[in-house]
C-alpha cells in the first residue's frame, strides 16, 4: 500500500517548493475543541505536579510534571487509517471488519501502515472560488466545482498528489455544534466530487471539516469510496486559512502520524512548505 | 523563545540534505513498550467497532471504528516542553512552577510553544565511536567523548543545530526493565557533557534513552541545565539505529509535536532526511 | 474522625427498620448522565470483547469481556471526602490543602477515611412539604423550612443521623443543563439551613442535587461549613423519589464507598431499608 | 434472574446476624495493587487541585479538588456480571456474545442486572480447615474438601445463600506476580468443587483470588459453569482474613455494585455482618 522507499524527499521538495515558507495546518487540542459525539471525549490533566513528593531526593532539587491524556485518534486535526471504515461490513481488501478487530486495536490496516507523509499537495480553495467565507452546512462540492476551481486557478494536480479542499469551515472551530454538523450538516464532496478526485489519482485527501465529505452524504459514502475501495487516506479538521490567504496552489505537505499500534487514525500536525 | 518565522525550510534542507532519503527515528506505541513508572500507563482500546449498532441507518451500509487512548505525553519517542522540568521549584524564566500549573495543564511553557521542528541535526554516535553495541547502564558521556567522536567523524555541529546522541539503547526497547534504567541506570551525558553541548549553541538535543542524561545523574541535573536554564528542548526514546547504520552525520531533522494545550510534552514521530 | 468500630449493625437496624423493604437511592452511570463540567467526562468502553483472540487456547472454548472506564469520583450518586473541599486554602483540620495533594491523589482526608455507612437517616421531603414536584433553580431551603417540614411530618432527627433532603431534582436527571444548574442555579440549603442541620448533630447529609447547597450560595459555602469546618460528609445526586412515594421518614441508610486511595470521593449506590 | 423484590432485609438479617459486628471484606484500590494483565491498568490522578484558578470568584474563598480515574470494572474486590463470560461464543441464555456487545458496553447481562446484595453467606475457610496460611498455586478445592470443611465446622449452606471460599490468598495482595497466578497458578475449585456448590443452590460465590476457580482450570471452565450455565455471579479478590480470624460461619453479606450501564462487572466494597 505504501511505496515510501522510493520517495526522495529532496526531489519532491525541489519540485514544488518555491521560497520555503512553512505553514502550520493544524488546530490545537484543548478541552473546548469540537469532538464528534461518537468519539471519546478529550481530557488532559496534570498527573504529577512539580511540588509533589518524590520517592527519593533528587539532584539539584529538581522536579518534573507530567499529564494523563484521554482521547480518540480522531481528535483535532487527524488522519484516518484504512481500517477506520468499512462498507457492508468489509474493510479495504475485502476482509470482514470483525476479523481485524482485537483487544489491542486493529490487527491490520491500522495507522502504522502510514509512513511519514511528504508529498506534493494542491489546494482547492472552493470557498475562495465561490467568493464566500465558508460554504453552507450540507453544501455539496461537485466535479464541476473542482473543474471550475482548477481552471480558474490553473491548478496542477498530479497522480500521487494530495488534494486539500477548503470550505472555510476552520472559521467555525470555536462553535462545536456548527463545526460538528449539528446545524444542518457539513459541506464537502459527494460521490460525484469524490470520483473526480479519485480519477485524478490522488494519494490522499484532506479538508477543513470533520467529515471531508458532504453531510448528509450524497450518492455514496465518500469515506467508503476513498478508504475502503481505493485505499486513499483522509485528513480532517485541517486549518487551511493561512494557505488560502497566501493563495497557495501547489506545495509540499508534510505530516508525521504517530505510530500507535492498532489505532484507527492519529492526531496530526501537518505543515505546508511553499 | 522560538524564531520560527525566519526559518526557511528550503534553504535549511538544501544546506544539509544530500540524496534525500527519509529515515524514521521513532519507536511505535504499543501496550508492551517501556513506560516510565512515574508516567501514566498507556492503553489503547477500540471504543466503537464496525459491527456496533449505529443510531440511524447509514449510507452504503458503512460503518466506522474508533478507539480510546490513555497516555502520558512522555510516551515512546517524545519531546519535553520547557515546563516539564523545574530547578528548586522554578521553571524556565524564573517563575515558581506552581504558578503555571492548572486544572487544564500548564498555563505557560507547555508543548504548544514548540513550533514545527525543521533543523539541521548532527549525530554523535557514541556507541559506534566506542565500538560497542550499546553503552552500559550508568555510563557517562563526557565532553571529551563528544570531542573525540566529533574529531573522528569530522562532525560539523553549528549553533542552532540539534545534537542527537546515540548510546545504542534502542536495542533494549523490548526489555522494559533495562530500558527504563532499573538495572543500574542509563547512559548519557552528565554535567560536563551537557555543558559541552550547551557551549556549542545547540537548539535541541535528543537521544535513544528515556532520560537523555546519565542516570544516576552526575554533577547536576542535565534536564535542569537544558530545559530550565537554557530553554533547550529534549527529545527522548529516539530510534537512532538506522541513522547509525548509514553513518549519517549531518542531516535535516523534522518533528511535528502535537499542539496539546497544557501538555508537558508530546509524542513525536521524527524523521531524518539525509 | 470515625468511630465506626462501635457501630452495632443489628441494633441500629432494629432501632429504625420496620418491615424491611430495601429502596435503591442511586442513579445509574451512563454516557448521557449529567456530569459537572469541572469534573472529568465519563466514558465506558469495552476493551476486550468475547470474540477477541486470546494468547493461548482456553478451556471450554470460553472467553471474557472487560471494559475501560474513565471517570471522576463525583459521578452520578456519590459521596464527597473531606479533602474534596477547602476554605481559604485549608482543609478540615487546618492543614493547607496543597500539603495533602500528591501525584497519587490526596495523602490524607481521602475517601478511604469513610467506613461502611450504616446509620439511621431521616428524609426531609421539602418538595413534598411545599406541595411541588420540585423546587425551583436557586430556591433556598431555610432553617424555618426544616423546622416546618419536621413538625408537619413528626420527623425524629437525632445526633449522628444522616439527613437527606429532597428537592425533587432527580426528576431532572435526563436534562443535564437544568440538572447541573445551568438554568438559574440549584435548590438547597444556604448558611441558615445548613447551620440548622449542623446544630442537630448530623453525621452526614445528602440530597438529590449535584451540589447539596443552594446555588448561587447564600451566606456562606455550605460545603465549607460541612466538610471543612465540621467533617460532615455530603452525598449528592441521590434519587429520593421512591422514598418520598412511600412517605419514608426514618430508616436505615447503607452506603459502601469504594476504598480508592487518594480519591476526593466515590461513586455510591446507597440503599434505604424501611 | 432477579427476585430481590421479595427480599426482606430485616428478616434476612434477623435470621443470620448474632451480635451485629460489621467486617469489611474489601481490598483498597491503589496504584500498587495487582491488576490482571488482560484488564486495563488502574490510574488515579488529581485533575483539579485546590489552588487551581477558578473561572469566577467563589464564596468564602472556597475551592474543590477532583480526580480522573481510569480502570476496569474488574479492579480490586469486584463482582462479575453475567455477560462478562461466554462458553463457545454464547452468553447466559444462549445468545451469541457478539450480539450484546456495543460501543456503549453490554446491551444486556451487564452489571446493572445485579441489585443490592443482602443475603446470608457461609464461609468455607479451606485454608483454615487444611491448617495452612494459604493454599498453594494451582491447588484444587474438590467436592470432598467442601464436604469435609462443612462437616468439621457444622456449616449450614442453604439454597439462595452466598458461598465464600477462603484460600488465604489475600495475604499475597502485595505480591502482584504471585497474586495474579504468574507463579504456578491459583488455588480454587475445579469442575468437581464448583458442581458441589451449584448442587447446593448457591445464588452467588466469592473467594479471595482473582479467578475464584483453580488455575490452570480442572475439568471445565468454572466461570462458564457459574456465569453462563447457571447465572451465578462471582465475587473476586475478597479479603476474608478478618472473617476467618473471627471463625465466622454464617452471616449477612451486603454488597452494592455500581450501576454502570454496559459494564461487565463492578468494583465492590462488601461487608459481612456477624
TrEMBL record, chains A, B, C, D:
Any Pfam family hit: Cyclase
Signal peptide extent: none
Alphabetical list of Gene3D superfamilies matching this protein: Putative cyclase
A GO MF label: hydrolase activity
Documented EC number(s): 3.5.-.-
InterPro entries tied to this protein: KFase/CYL, KFase_sf
Keywords: Hydrolase
PANTHER family reported in the protein's UniProt record: CYCLASE, PTHR34861
Name of the protein in its database record: Cyclase family protein
